[in-house]
Amino acid sequence: MVGRTTDGTESPIITESDADTDKPRVRYGELVILGYNGFLPQGDRGRRRSKFVLYKRAEPNGVKRSKHYIVQSPQTSQAILNAKQHSISYTLSRSQAVIVEYKEDPDTDMFQVGRSSESPIDFVVMDTLPGDKKDAKVLQSTISRFACRILVDRCDGNKARIYAAGFDSSRNIFLGEKATKWQDNVEIDGLTTNGVLIMHPKGEFCGGSADCGQWRETSVGGDVFSLRECRSAQQKGQQVYDENNILQDGTLIDLCGATLLWRSAEGLRHSPTKKDLEKLVDEINAGRPQCPVGLNTLVIPRKVSLGDHVNQPYVYLNCGHVQGQHGWGQDKNTNARRCPMCLEVGPVVTLCMGVEPAFYVDSGPPTYAFNPCGHMATEKTVKYWANVDIPHGTNGFQSVCPFCATPLVGSPGYIKLIFQDNLD
Ligand SMILES: [Zn+2]
Ligand SMILES: [Zn+2]
């Protein structure tokens, strides 16, 4: 076969198929990495991709807590040595550890996420770099190789629970001496170094009326806590008893270096499809928007095109006027330009459609764009993401464009687009 480069737009979602049945597989939901517009820049390949669909497995592979006991040397204990036995080892001191054995659970399917490319990881996630820095190399990743695991109830796909840490190739999870851990009554639990943070939106993600909820941390055992003082602090937060680790449509999962969006199967049924989004672009293009200066017809690209083409639309970020490429009003010393329509001075960027459907909170024409990257989406979608705080570094939060992870600039961080054919 001749090697072919691909931008990933055409790459199919790879799924395991039930060999002996033609039944469509039950979809639980999707995990989508924030910052990609439908595919990874180098193309989606295997388990390394911009989003991962969780399908009901042919055979259950979930596990649940069984017995636990104290050992002197966990490295030589039977449960750790036995590569078929799932277990979690909580090191208390150099000479003492609690081992929790896990047994097969016929009622759940397990999916694991992390930076490792070893086989227990279903969805390989690397650090996300914002927009224009996508080609830079991450020298020291903060994402755990076995970051988290999700267990879905096979009878009720709406019950997908997330837990910190994933089982490695030997089916073990090791929490070292320095890891935060504690024992309540009989159960032992702990946190991973950089933790797994979750944010359930307040309200329904679909429809666009939801607000950003509180960021919480989920433990290895799946309990929910307020955030630590800083990301990897030794002291755990306060347990939050009236919240849980069940993913809701729109729940965000932060792995410290990449943020994932959970979309439930039910939520996705109410979201636009990629086809719908492409149709919306076609409809705007069919209106033959004009550049008021060059008087040429503008064409919104459906795909990111390399290099400028003559019909590429640009948006003036301070006023929202959409025009073609021209030299009018250019300030030689800065990147700013004076808009010929309203004489406002400001930066200008290329317009590009946000085509990852999972990030949309509703359907409709893409009449808004994020500032400063120029990704277009619906009004409600743009406004929703502008109000969502995404963990940044070890202590801060920022709002970002979900299609490219560029931090939003200014307030409100978006602009209403004004096309020439829409003026009257
Ligand atoms: Zn203007
Ligand atoms: Zn963007």
UniProtKB/TrEMBL annotation:
Keywords on record: Phosphoprotein
Region (Disordered): 1-21
GO MF terms, alphabetically ordered: ubiquitin protein ligase activity
GO BP annotations listed: protein polyubiquitination; regulation of Toll signaling pathway
Coiled-coil portions: none
Domain Pellino RING: residue ranges: 284-424
Pfam families on file: Pellino_FHA, Pellino_RING
Domain Pellino FHA residues, every copy: 21-279
Ranges annotated as biased composition (Polar residues): 1-14
Keyword Phosphoprotein (UniProt): yes
InterPro entries in UniProt: Pellino_fam (IPR006800), Pellino_FHA (IPR048334), Pellino_RING (IPR048335)
Family the entry assigns: Belongs to the pellino family.
Protein name: Protein pellino
Species in which this protein is naturally found: Anopheles darlingi
